[in-house]
Amino acid sequence: MTHAAARNASALAAGLLFGLGLAISQMVNPRKVLDFLDVAGNWDPSLVLVLGGAVGVAMLAFRFVLKRRQPIFDGEFHLPKTTKVDRRLLVGSAIFGVGWGIGGYCPGPGIAALSAASVEALVFVAGLAFGSFLYQRFAAPRD
Q1: pTM over 0.70
Q2: Three-state SS at 42
Q3: Which residues contact 34 (CB under 8 A, 6 or more apart)?
Q4: How far apart are CA 104 and CA 36, in angstroms?
Q5: pLDDT tens, 29-45?
């Protein structure tokens, strides 16, 4: 297997594992997310366990992975170059949160929900793609 094929196989395996985790945790069900956000009504706290598990696994993985000189299938780690909290980050986070609260999807679960032939997910992903296009065209920092 070539280096590029191994990298692609690794990415496919990671994506499938991520999608399976989303399906098992019901993150592809927008009702689950909306019930988590509805603290004054039909609150479903189980999403805290999903988020806590994801953060815990990521924290452990980063401790070990970042001790390596480079990733297995790449020449360097691609980490953010800035860590400052600025207006762009805060506005983007707010837009993300409002969209998540309205629709019950964020990008990963929205894309995974396409496998269930959900019209809601299709509309969400189309909006996501259009918003990404607009950002790249009008707002992305230029090198």
Answers
A1: yes
A2: coil
A3: 101, 104
A4: 10
A5: 888 888 988 889 889 99
